[in-house]
Amino acid sequence: MEKTVMKPINVGLLGLGTVGGGTLTVLRRNATEITRRAGREIRVTMAAVRDLDKARPYASAGLALTNNPFAVVDNPDIDIVVEMMGGISPAKDLILMAIENGKHVVTANKALIANHGTEIFAAAQKKGVMVAFEAAVGGGIPIIKAIREGLTANRIEWIAGIINGTTNFILTEMRDKGAGFDEMLKEAQRLGYAEADPTFDVEGVDAAHKLTIMSAIAFGIPMQFERAYIEGITQITGADVKYAEQLGYRIKLLGITRRTAKGIELRVHPALIPARRLIANVDGAMNAILVKGDAVGPTLYYGAGAGAEPTASSVVADLVDITRMHTADPHNRVPHLAFQPDALSDEPILPMDEVRTAYYLRLRALDKPGVLADVTRILADLDISIDAMMQKEPHEGEEQVDIIMLTHQSVEKNINAAMTKIESLPAICGKIARIRLEQLGK
Ligand code: NAP
Ligand code: HSE
């Protein structure tokens, strides 16, 4: 039988930095394999950057370089626009314009999707085009596809993940080499892992963007980034990393979203995880995401969470998906948020004060009788029970000691109240270090 040769799909790139450059490299290197999979050639015909000189290494016949990104979204020959510039402006306007012009969109921009996804998906639905964002979460791990399609039979109960490569890299190096925070952040920037504004990484904002997206597709709720609880890793000290290890735990920046009877938890913060869990051994810039479905049980997804080609792997997967679905009836496509747009739920996000979890507390106290009794009385009065306790010997000539406590599960507002009371005791020196503790067992 004679084979019909399909017209190539023309792609316009917005950005040729870490991810954009990686995408072009992978598309070029694996062109034959990708065409065999997609059913037609996917070719990049136009790319926009700010600095044309920096983009010269990518120049080739058939690729027009411009410093005007609007020329890409307005080009009638472009079928798919791939946004890899980052930030909200002008990325949002460019994407909305591309949609308005009838183009499909692929983006790696989690900040944009978490903050403006609802508006973008509505515009795409109206125009019958696709907006794909696999690269926005977990770098090269196909987690969006797994949650949205592979686990579609399940009522998802919770998701917990290491979803920021930069902070996992910093925490790993602090633990293994005793390296300094600032030095490791610079290294993560050099390796292309960090966001343009690295405070997004270290303060947990980037992880919260990704968690917001996963929560929306897992539970069929709108994107609610503004309701996420966010705490980064800047308060984690070498001492906490060391004490956690001594107690059999690792400290990781976790994103957790969980369905509870009172609402949906949506929180990013450092957490102690039992060292025996697979996820506690995910090191460097690697990411791992645990998804618990009612039918399948816990499933774990692991891979490179940042960097040029791992992220490009996800971008190209979206390009192939769109190329295959290009001519399909829009009603037969997988919905952007996994659930039909008119079937989204209004389940509330649970305020952080109401979240129940366990805690690691490190107090610095004067080494004298009665201090521990005062502390434990305050905890007991607030219904907080202690699971384990460790008191370190004072250093020579010092009168203060470190006391480390692990609590059983308690309500966050009770822990906050207990910390305020304990900090006001005359024998307690300075602030209490508080890190949440997650068993991640069931
Ligand atoms: P990047 O290396 O800074 O690259 C950004 C690119 O966009 C550069 O080519 C830049 O051009 C271009 N650009 C920025 N603003 C522009 C404008 N107004 N007009 C034209 N071109 C513009 O950033 P990246 O690390 O690739 O990240 C891109 C996106 O992917 C972000 O949304 C990020 O969150 C996301 N992401 C990154 C990773 C990662 O590992 N890096 C992983 C997953 C997702 P010039 O170089 O000429 O300024
Ligand atoms: N800055 C992000 C990270 C890039 O470190 O995980 C990948 O999304």
Automatic annotation (TrEMBL):
Pathway assigned in UniProt: Amino-acid biosynthesis; L-methionine biosynthesis via de novo pathway; L-homoserine from L-aspartate: step 3/3; Amino-acid biosynthesis; L-threonine biosynthesis; L-threonine from L-aspartate: step 3/5
Residues reported to bind NADP(+): 14-21
Residues reported to bind NADPH: 110
Annotated residues for binding of L-homoserine: 195
Top EC category: oxidoreductase
UniProt entry tagged with the keyword ATP-binding: no
Domain ACT: 360-437
Catalytic site positions: 210
Gene Ontology MF term list: homoserine dehydrogenase activity; metal ion binding; NADP binding
GO biological process, one term: methionine biosynthetic process
EC number: 1.1.1.3
Keywords, in A-Z order: Amino-acid biosynthesis, Metal-binding, Methionine biosynthesis, NAD, NADP, Oxidoreductase, Threonine biosynthesis
Signal peptide bounds: none
Entry cofactors: a metal cation
Family per similarity comment: Belongs to the homoserine dehydrogenase family.
Protein name per the record: Homoserine dehydrogenase
Species of the source: Sulfuriferula plumbiphila
Organism phylogeny: Bacteria, Pseudomonadati, Pseudomonadota, Betaproteobacteria, Nitrosomonadales
